[in-house]
Design brief:
The complex is a heterodimer.
Chain A lengths: L32 H16 L9 E5 H4 L9 E6 L4 H19 L2 H8 L6 E6 L5 H7 L4 E4 L13 E8 L5 H9 E4 L2 E4 L1 H4 L3 E4 L2 E5 H13 L3 E8 L1
Parallel strand pairs in A: 2-3
Antiparallel strand pairs in A: 1-2, 1-4, 5-9, 5-10, 6-7, 8-9
Chain B lengths: L2 H21 L6 H22 L20 H7 L12 H12 L2 H6 L7 H17 L3
Helix pairs in contact in B: 1-2, 2-4, 2-6, 4-6
Classes of the chains: A alpha+beta, B mainly alpha.
Chain lengths: 235, 137
Amino acid sequence: MTSTPRNRGREQPSRFADGAASLPGQPVAPGGIGDLARYAAAFAYFLLACPEIRGIRSIILFGSVAQGRAGPSSDVDVLIDTPLPPSRARALRSSLERRKEAFLISQEGLAYKAQGVFNDLELTVGNLDGWEEMRSSLSAGAVVLFGPFTTRFAPEGLRHHLLIVWEGKGANRGALLNKLYGYGIQGKRYKGAIDRLSGEKIGKAAALIPMEHARAFMGILEHYGISYKVIEVFR
Amino acid sequence: MREEKHRDIIAEVDSTIREALQSKNLLAHQRRLAAMLSLGAQQLLEVYLHRLHVIKPGTAVKHEWFGMGVENPSRKLAAMLTRPPGEVPGLAELLVLARVVEEGRNDLLYGSPLSDDEALRKKIDAYMHMRRQVGGP
């Protein structure tokens, strides 16, 4: 069981008289972790804008920046997930490295340098399918910059769930309970959301819901004005 | 020149670069960038040498030296330094970057408008790396 990462950088830039951020002597992201994440996102967008680069399935920020514990000179770790076979993946990697060099002197890259972001972009290229070690690493904290939201990033054999714990009775407690747990009328049983969404009742006001159905379940609670908390679970 | 004056000039150069990058049209700032980057590189080098206390008082670095090939800038600087250029840490790297900034400066300033901003971006990148190496104000 893991909790959702919430750490954020706390560094503050020094300022010139005109209010703009100064250029420090070391690679510091003036806004902290947020700037490095945006830097990674800008780089991802730059990659995707190149029509010659094909075979990217997902782009994922991982490592210390994604986990909220990056330091001033931390590398920005970016995983390029590709279904290409190894020989073509190597060619893709070469293209990506060239594109990275172009990004560093692009207007976007220079704008980040003007804010003091000189952190190295470390590219990792491979196929997440069957890459157990990387999937375990991603489960410690990762940000999908491009690609479908999917439970593929969970460690092999584990499914991504949300443990949803709610409290309060809301406006219409009876209707809510029926909605969540189901009800019977004239001998006929109607399934509740927990069953329909392949979830599992964990406690009095808690359920374990597969990630792909979690939004639908949370929508029900929100509709009835119920507050809730979520914890990510892999099992 | 006192360090505060260097800081003010460098701040103005930095502001010009930011403005040009934010405009997303570097070509519209061609001449201004060429002039300011050259000025900025010269100022950064002077600040760097002053901080290391290796430059003789009353001497000034000339931006034209940066465009004089690889060896000549060191020879020009040797006359104003208190130790051989080869013994000044980081100076060689700064001169390489300064050369990128200075190369083609006059063409950019007085010549035809560029059709592609790659040269400007490379100069900005070189200046940023100089800026990073020299450090904050």
